[in-house]
Amino acid sequence: MSLSDPIADLLTRIRNALRARHTIVNARASGICEGVCRVLKDEGYIEDYKRIPDVKQDFLRVYLKYGRNGEDVITDLKRISRPGRRVYCGSKDLPKVLNGLGISVVSTSSGVLSDRQCRQKSVGGEVLCTVS
């Protein structure tokens, strides 16, 4: 089975696992998905992630994070750029999610970065998703 949008698959698996109150979710591994998970970990939205080798295809094991009283740390995950419609922004035009309380995940020439890192480095790129 071919998967045309691995990022959307990763985000949907995380969204569904959060609704079901799971602590661990597995998704297919790719370089871009690993970059998205790295940004989510650096920004404090997930506990950790690991790349697990497999015979057919590696997969990512994502450890989800909840608040002290069990509230969701991630309240909204939205795919912005998709295979049918790519969205590119310069460093000054990057969208602010919830006036800076959320982040945008951007694929740049320097790798996958958050919108804050893009503004610091003055690089733009493809806006993959928003997280709040």
TrEMBL record:
GO biological process: translation
Entry GO terms, CC: cytoplasm; ribonucleoprotein complex; ribosome
Keyword terms of this UniProt record: Ribonucleoprotein, Ribosomal protein, RNA-binding, rRNA-binding
One GO molecular-function entry: structural constituent of ribosome
NCBIfam families the record matches: PRK00136.1
PANTHER family, sorted: 40S RIBOSOMAL PROTEIN S15A
Similarity annotation: Belongs to the universal ribosomal protein uS8 family.
Protein name listed in UniProt: 30S ribosomal protein S8
Species: marine sediment metagenome
